[in-house]
Amino acid sequence: MPRKRKKTDNGGMRGDEWLNTYSDCITLLLTFFILLYSMSTVDEAKLRQLSKAFNEIMVGKVGDSVLKYNLYNGEVPVIGGEEEGELEGDVIVPSSHSMYDEIKRFSVANNLDEVVEITEDERGIILQLKDSILFESGKSNLKSDSKEILNKLSKLIKEMPNSIVIEGHTDNVPINTSEYKNNWELSTARALSVVEYFISDKGLNPSRFSASGYGEYKPLVSNTTIENKSKNRRVNILIVAEGKER
Fold first, then answer.
1. In this entry, which stretches build a coiled coil (predicted)?
2. Where are the beta strands (DSSP E) in 116-197?
């Protein structure tokens, strides 16, 4: 039976009848959202990450990790947010398609794009440095001015969960010195020097690293010119793709 509309003192109808419909609508919406929430699954890891980010924003704290968007100084993260990766505990694991782009942005932001060449293959992302940036000819001791570059790269590596392989490569010019009998030994010693710097000087986790020396046997181009030989003398920092760990 429909409700009777109350009359005002002058015989007209009251103007607040819409409140009944409005309250019914709000009640239905509230019931609907409660139902949705009851059927949802709360990701505790994501909730912790979100809560931490909000707390830092509210107190005006600048993000201290390259994993975060820095809202106060305009910098972008090295590794993207949840839309481009997955959360495992409190660590953001980047998806393979986003990691290359984010590392490129880090390289540009840190003025590394002229000394570090970034490529990608089926194993992961490769940061390639010419040997002349890191070493004197025929030597495996790091040049002092190369450490500024390695310091920047260590910040990138520190914020990533991936395994790291350091690879040494030479050209095909034979070497036979009191230190190294051949290019195998030289390339391996150079790779070890980089690994030791990341571990001993920068305190990175040793279990993440391995070193390989390939001598002249994996050239980028044929060793037919001085320029090509220069390209082949290099050290690669391989950031191993998810699922490709040895």
1. none
2. 117-121, 124-130, 164-169
